[in-house]
Amino acid sequence: MAAMQHEPAAGHPDPEVRGWAPSSWRDRPANQMPQWPDPDVLAAAQRTVAALPPLVFAGEARRLTDSLAQVAAGRAVVLQAGDCAESFAEQTADAIRDKLKVILQMAVVLTYASGVPVVKIGRIAGQFAKPRSSPVERVGDVEMPAFRGHIVNDDAPIPAARVPDATRLVTAYHHAAATLNLLRAFTKGGFADLSHVHAWNQEFVASSAEGRRYEAIAEEIDRALRFMRACGVDLSTGAPIHQVDFYTSHEALLLDYEEALTRRDSLTGDWYDCSAHMLWIGERTRALDGAHVEFLSGVRNPIGVKLGPTTTRDEALALCERLNPDRVPGRLTLICRFGVAKVTGVLPALVRAVTDAGHPVVWQCDPMHGNTFTSENGRKTRHFDDVLGEIRGFFAVHRAEGTWPGGVHVELTGDDVTECLGGVEDILEEQLPLRYTTTCDPRLNARQAIDLAFRVAELLRA
Ligand code: PEP
Ligand code: CO
């Protein structure tokens, strides 16, 4: 009898009826979490973060779910982009502005080409925790704990810097708050106004072939705006061209932090993780009965889950059922990161299974994480051709299956770095050390990112 009473609760749409709570992940196996040396310091940091205001509001997260529902329905595309790991040391106003510029530029190119809205989500204002393939790193003769993101330890290659320090949770909160404050000012306060479309083209981009191609679109947009004004269309304050909806996201890896920012929405009574608008589960932490799936199953934010090349159709289906049992459109994004060689082999079966089961997911292509390799000079890198190749394979599968290739998820920076190979300027292996500044994975530089946007635009138009 008791067992029968438990049955309905297991799949109940209300997470709390299912026994979910912001802390229920603690009963599950949690991969990739650091060994904090001092539990008291951790508990104090969590109390501090829990007493601070939410970074985002439930209503904003709901608006993003609605926008992503448009993507799931094939009426919009999503661009999710930003750093692999944000650095506490490089969060200057200029760096944040330049990253935003590139994302806005890419979005303009995609919107212009596709004629549908582009939902813009940054890997920003909280992308501080990193899963690692190995818990240790060897630097010369010295073995030390791996760098796990600035919310956990420091990237300096000395063992003392790598000791997890829980006071960093509080520092991470303040960095996220400062970044978000600037993003809100930029996107709502005039900088992202479509009539400034030329100003987003940074100098080192403007002089390149991609920059000139972008200028041509910017000129067309100017002309269209002049035309509308001449026709008497009211483009004064209040028109949607003056502001941009820009959302934040990060991998919900460090659950001690995410739990401390999980709040009950006063309007609906639902739980939201108020550290970002969207959260995702990484490839290494998507175990169905693991802590990360448990945690995100109960918050109402739009969420994503990374799917790597070993994902089976049963795993994909089980994740959909567990994370979106009510089949809410826009709630769940499947972030596919198979690698250029595997995408056309792995994706079709997953698309068919998920579609046949009636799950209204957003299909997103992350062409970065399945295409990483180490160059001869020891730098972790990716080749632009592989990145583009995986996106092409992703589009081809969706075209063949009759499903909507919802968008892309990329790692980029607004800086003129040399971390990924190839692209129009054709970065070569020997050039990687010139400006290689990432603390984690190699990122597209601004020119490569805009080039990629043009290529994706062509695919959307095809
Ligand atoms: C990432 O997005 O930086 C990442 C670690 O991805 P994945 O979980 O897909 O490896
Ligand atoms: Co990464």
What's the structural blueprint in terms of helices and strands?
Blueprint: H1 2-10, H2 39-50, H3 58-72, E1 77-82, H4 93-114, E2 118-123, E3 136-139, E4 142-145, H5 168-188, H6 203-206, H7 209-230, E5 246-251, H8 255-260, E6 262-264, E7 271-273, E8 278-281, H9 291-298, E9 303-307, H10 313-323, E10 332-336, H11 343-356, E11 362-365, E12 373-374, E13 380-381, H12 384-401, E14 407-411, H13 446-461
Parallel strand pairs: 1-2, 1-14, 2-5, 5-8, 8-9, 9-10, 10-11, 11-14
Antiparallel strand pairs: 3-4, 6-7, 12-13
Helix pairs in contact: 2-5, 4-5, 4-13, 10-11, 11-12, 12-13
This protein binds phosphoenolpyruvate and cobalt (II) ion.
Please, could you describe this protein's structure?
This protein has a single domain, classed as Alpha-Beta Barrel (TIM Barrel). The protein is globular, with a radius of gyration of 22 Å. Helices cover 39% and strands 13% of the residues. The chain has 462 residues and is α/β, with parallel strands linked by helices. The N terminus is likely disordered. The strands form four sheets. An eight-stranded parallel barrel has the order 1-2-5-8-9-10-11-14, surrounded by six helices. Helix 2 packs parallel to helix 5 and helix 4 crosses helix 5. It is built from 13 helices and 14 strands. Strand 12 and strand 13 form a beta hairpin. The structure holds phosphoenolpyruvate and cobalt (II) ion. Phosphoenolpyruvate binds next to loops.
Here the CATH topology equals TIM Barrel
Structural class per helix/strand content?
alpha/beta
Strand order of the largest sheet: 1-2-5-8-9-10-11-14
Summarize the biggest pleated sheet.
8 strands, parallel, barrel
The number of helical elements comes to 13
- Give helix % range: 25-40%
Per CATH, the class reads Alpha Beta
What is the alpha-carbon Rg in Å? 22 Å
CATH architecture annotation: Alpha-Beta Barrel
Uncertain segments of ≥5 residues (pLDDT<50)? 1-8
- Let me know the average pLDDT: 94
Report the portion of residues in β strands: 5-15%
Shape: globular
| Head-to-tail CA distance between termini | 58 Å
User: Number of DSSP strands?
Assistant: 14
CATH H-level homologous superfamily name: Aldolase class I
Cofactors and ligands:
phosphoenolpyruvate, cobalt (II) ion
Order of helices and strands: HHHEHEEEHHHEHEEEHEHEHEEEHEH
Number of domains: 1
